[in-house]
Amino acid sequence: QELMSDLYLQKLEVETLAHHSQSFTRQLPVPERELIEGPLQDYRECWEKLERELVSKQHELEKTLLSLGHFQPALQQTLTWLITTQELLDQQRCPSIDLHTCEIQLAKLRVLWNDVRAHESTVQSVHQAGLALLTPNSRKTVSNLSHNLQELDLRWERVKYQTEQQVLELETTVSQAQKLNQEIQGLLLWIDEVEGQLSANGLCEAAQTPQERFQLHLELYKEVESKQCAYDSVYTVMEQFLNDCRDSKGSKTEHRLHTLQHKWNAVHLKMQERKVRLSERVTLETQFHSNAQELIGWIEDAMNMLNKAPAPSLIQEYITIQIQDHQVTCPGRNTVHPPPHHTVAKCYLMAQNHPGRFSSDVASHSAQLNTLEQCSEPLRDYSSKQHRSLIQNVMGTVREKWAKLTQCTSQREQSLQEARKHAQQV
């Protein structure tokens, strides 16, 4: 019996060692894992063989003692063991959701369950020996013996049932804890991947334009939104488990849950901010190309007007009118405010109906050119090399056409002035 008691204590150490070895070898590559698991398996087999032999020896000794008439000591010893085991079962704490703690609890409970099953033969032998003593004894002795046998049966059934139920419940808890921890680990790894894509060069290396980057981000944004249900489910279940378990405060599982919550909120905030920022860039790019096309169209129409303008007159009255039509300046010509956004058709019609406003309209559109320059600068800063070249080409085209227009306008004004001098001399 002293040897069996020592065996029970050593068995707890063996199960704890087995648990630690499994946790350690999971992280190792297959070759190294086999080098460790091989000797551990041999050790476990030797231990199980020793355990079977000791249990078998205990049963033989118990039967021998019963055959020699040692029923009462055996009965009392068995009842004492049942009472002690029942107290151990009653002291079992609420299963923890922390996987490491839960697995250790399960390992210890399985040792107790093996001990209970090993005592089944002992209980049966004591019970049968008691039944054999019922008939020959006196009525009082029979009554006491019957009561003891009933207590033996009731305590045995209760211990066996309670041990089995606690093992099943703890196995279910371990299974749930493993599943939830795997889901948490999966979400954490996925969030790390998303954070990598959200880094400076991680998301849109292949995208050339802000619109392409925005579309790629929307795809990632939809992926994040699709994970919302999985995150909410894991967080709700884990939070409920942690609230139900008294020993969950400060546990590794609680720390991992808080880490998941922090990372999820952080990546969700980054996604929102990146979405707004990319949307603003798409709007800016759209406005840039729209304004560039509008300004180019206006310049081309202005050039057509200059090309179709009548030749300078040599008559004093007519040349004076032509110069006034070319040089009259509208109010606000030198202001720095952006020009009114006339359509190309309206500008052309205005210039035809009011020729004197042509020079003023050219001057006012210089502010629109400056605005276009300012709009192109941030676009070039966060665009790819290829798209940056496209923006520079657009601006180069606009500047070239604008320079040609201003040159033609100046030449027209110079020719009108020369024509006026000639008309004055005639």
Automatic annotation (TrEMBL):
Gene3D superfamilies: 1.20.58.60. InterPro entries: Plakin, Spectrin/alpha-actinin, Spectrin_repeat. GO terms for biological process: intermediate filament cytoskeleton organization; wound healing. GO terms for cellular component: cytoplasm; intermediate filament; membrane. SUPFAM superfamilies: Spectrin repeat. GO terms for molecular function: structural molecule activity. Pfam families: Spectrin. SMART domains: SPEC. This is KASH domain-containing protein. The lineage of its organism: Eukaryota, Metazoa, Chordata, Craniata, Vertebrata.
